[in-house]
C-alpha cells in the first residue's frame, strides 16, 4: 500500500473514532445534564418558580442578547458579570445576613470569626445538598433560603429595569436603561438566573462534592473548588503535549526534506491561467470582505468604549440606540462573516482554476449566492436590533431575532438560510471541481481533500440547527461548539491547507506527491486534537468527568503541530524567494507567514495557557480568554483570509501594478496593532482578574467593584494605540483594494515575464 493510501486510511479511521467518541459523549450529556425542575417550592409549600418561568426567563435572556450581555457558566461577554456566579455570591451574602440576625441577633459584620465559620458551614451544606426530587419534579428550598432568593431577585428586578437605585450599576455593566421593560419578563428572568446558579452550586446526586458544572465557578464560601479530576487531567494533558511534540519533531527530522525540491519554472505558471466569467464574478465577494471588515472594526471600537463610559460615547447616549449587547453581537458575527466570505470567494475562484472547467450557469450561481449572503446579513442584523430593543416580542425572537448564543446568535430563519447558502456554495465548488476529481494524477488527493473539506464546511454548519428554542442549555452548548470549534477551527483549517498546497504545486515550488502526503499528514495531526479537543469548551457546561478527560487530553494535542510551525514558515519563506517572479506573490505569502506566527503565539501559546482544566477553571470568562480569541481568530484566520483574498486579486488582474508600500504598511499595522492590543490590555487585565479570582473567588474578578478600579480604566484606555494602528492597517488595505480595482495601472513587463523585466519592476518598487 502506498504512503498516500495509508494516510487516507489513517485519516478515515481517525474521523470515525473521533466522531464516534463525540456522539457517545453527547449521549452522556443528554443523560446527565442538570434537571430543570417543574416547580421550585419552599418546605412550607409555597411555589416560587415553575418550569414555565425558567423557560420563559431563558427566552427573555436570549432576546436581550444572551451571552452578549454578561455570561452564563462562563460563556459570553466580559463587561457585565457572570450571572450564575453573581447570583451565588449575592444569595450567600443575603442568607448569611438573615441567618446571623435569626441565630445571633446581630448583623453578619458583628459575628466573631468562630460564629462566622459555623454559620458559613451551615450555609455551605444547604447550598451543596441536592434537594431536587426526580419523582415529583420539585426542587425544595427552606423558607429561610427563599427569603434570601427573594432579596436577590429583587436586585435583578431593579437592575434590568430603569430604577434609579441601580443606574450606576447598569452603567458599569454597559446595560441600557429598561433592558427588560416588562415586569413579568423580569421576574421570569430571575427564575432562569437562579436555576443556572443552583446547577453550579448543588452536588450531582450520583457524585457528592461535584456540582453539575464540575464545581465551577470558584467560590470557596460554598465549597466550589477544583475537582480532583481537574488536577489529574491537567497533569496528563501536559504529558500528552510533551509526548506529541516529541513524536512530531522526530517524524519531521526523520522524513521531512528527504526528497529533492523541484526546479522552479522560469516563468510564472499562473500567468497562463484563463480567468473565467465566474472567477471574475468573485471579485465582489472580496469587496464585501473589506466592507464587513471595516464595519467590524468600528463596532469593535464602540464595544470597547462601552467599558469606559458604560452607556455613552463622548456624551452621546449611544446605549439608547445601539446597546452594548448589540454592538458586540454584530462585532463577533462580522468577524466570522468576513473571514468566511474571503474563504468562500477563494473556493469559488480557485475551483475553475484547478479543473480548467467552467460549468454552465456558474457565474449566475456565484452572483445569486452573493445576493443571498447580503440578504442574510441585512435581515439577521435587523432582526437582532428589534430583539435587543425589545420591539419584537418573545414569540418571534427565536426565528427572526436574537438566539443569544455567542457566534451563532442570528435568528433560526437566517441560520437555516445561511445553511442553504453554504449548500449552494458546496454545489458550485463541487461541480467546478468535478473534472479535476475524475482525473487520476499527482494532484488528485489534494483536490479530493479540498472537496471533502468543502463538503464538511457546507454540512457541519448544520450542527447549528440541532437545537430548538427550549432545548436544554447544556445540549445547546454541545452543538454550538460543533459549529464554532469544528466548523471554523477544524474544516476551514483543512480547506486552507489544501488550497495553499495546491497553489504552491501550481507554481511549481513543491512536487505534487510530496504536497499530497504533507497535506494528508497535516490534516491527520490537526484533526487528532482538533475534533475531540472541542470538549475543552464544555468542562463546566453541565457535562461529566468524561468531557474533562477527553477535552484535556486532545486539546493539548491541538498545540502539537504548532510546535514546529516556525519550520513550516521557513519553508514558505524559502518558496517565496525561489525565483524572481515569486515577488509577484510576496505579500500574499507574507500574510501566510503571519498566519504561522500567530498560530504559534495566539492559538498555541495563549491557547494552551487557558485550555487545561485547572487553568480554565480559574480563567474561563476572564480577559485571558479574549487574549487567545483575538490573536487566534484574526491572527490566524483573518490573516489567512486576507492572504487568500490577495492571491485571488493577483490573479484577477494579473498585469496590474501592485503598490506594495500600501500593503507593507497595512501588514505591519495589523501585526503591531494586534500585538499592542494583546500585550498592553488583554494580557495584564486578564492577569489581574486571575489574581482577583484566586484571592476572593470568581465572582469578584467579574464584579463592578473590581472592574471599576482606576487601574482597569487605564488598561482599557491602553487599547487605543493598538486599536488605532490596527484600524489604520484596515484602511490602508481597503485603499489598496479600491485602487487596485478601480484605478489599476498595467505593467507591460509582466506580459514578457522574463526575469530581467521582473527585476526592473522590482527596482521600481511596484510589484
Automatic annotation (TrEMBL):
SUPFAM superfamilies (alphabetical)? Cytochrome c oxidase subunit I-like (SSF81442)
Top-rank lineage group of the source organism: Bacteria
Q: Which residues form the Nitric oxide reductase subunit B cytochrome c-like domain?
A: 37-218
Where does the chain cross the membrane? 7-26, 230-250, 285-306, 335-354, 366-387, 413-434, 446-467, 487-507, 519-540, 546-567, 587-610, 630-649, 661-683, 724-742
Please tell me whether the keyword Transferase is annotated for this protein: no
**Gene3D superfamilies, A to Z:** Cytochrome c oxidase-like, subunit I domain
Keywords from UniProt, A to Z, are: Membrane, Transmembrane, Transmembrane helix
Under which name does UniProt file this protein? Nitric-oxide reductase large subunit
From which organism does this entry originate? Lysobacter soyae
